[in-house]
Amino acid sequence: xxxxxxxxxxxxxxxxxxxxxxxxxxxxxxxxxxxxxxxxxxxxxxxxxxxxxxxxxxxxxxxxxxxxxxxxxxxxxxxxxxxxxxxxxxxxxxxxxxxxxxxxxxxxxxxxxxxxxxxxxxxxxxxxxxxxxxxxxxxxxxxxxxxxxxxxxxxxxxxxxxxxxxxxxxxxxxxxxxxxxxxxxxxxxxxxxxxxxxxxxxxxxxxxxxxxxxxxxxxxxxxxxxxxxxxxxxxxxxxxxxxxxxxxxxxxxxxxxxxxxxxxxxxxxxxxxxxxxxxxxxxxxxxxxxxxxxxxxxxxx
Length: 301
What we know:
Blueprint: H1 3-16, H2 19-26, H3 30-44, E1 49-52, E2 55-58, H4 60-83, E3 92-98, H5 100-117, E4 121-127, H6 134-137, E5 141-145, E6 154-161, E7 163-167, H7 169-175, E8 189-192, E9 200-205, E10 208-213, E11 218-220, H8 223-231, E12 236-240, H9 245-250, E13 254-256, E14 265-271, H10 279-292
Parallel strand pairs: 3-4, 3-5, 8-11, 8-12
Antiparallel strand pairs: 1-2, 5-14, 6-14, 7-12, 7-13, 9-10
């Protein structure tokens, strides 16, 4: 069995964590699969699987190799599709990574429009409040906020967002609006650890950086919870502008301290391979970029 078949065999076992199930999926006998894995481990000089009476588990080396196998096998499939002309028609599974609230507040309607336009594509959405490694994690396209760090990726700028402080109109009417960041000390603060780990909010005024350390009345693990509390009049919270676009439009929240905001941050669609990317990737990037550039949540006022 060649190296490609050995990798396919191992990847199936890594996904199923069962030699028998992997053998059935690959339509091969269990002894043949076992010999393939053994030959692969001998060639690599390390154990990839830990075997017991309860089944198999991936070793630490096996976990790393499974990620490499997934990426390499996927690239081989895409290379074969490209050579045979299948890249001309968008089809297959598109893996998309995005921040949770960005997906919920901004991107979901665009995804549905894209799927209606390209019925042979399926989208796997991953909601990640971090920047994924597209190459290692098998992500086709990602939404990235902030400056690009990986020069090997291709990117389309789709807009920009701001860090904003907001509260409900009812709260501001009752407690008053802070005129400076230092005025936050007299306010009820809702802090989201998804925004910053420590309750320190940064601002800028006349080119000078300002950091205000706060004592929150309410601390939340997610931005959604903090925003919901702010809508109910619990106090002031800080988040990104796209996260509260709908609440601002509906009059549930109002921003304050706009003169002290940090510079806006760019938002990108990032992807791999450029023009060599699969048709599903190229078509999605073109479709989504055009829609997102028109979205008011990505056009700071």
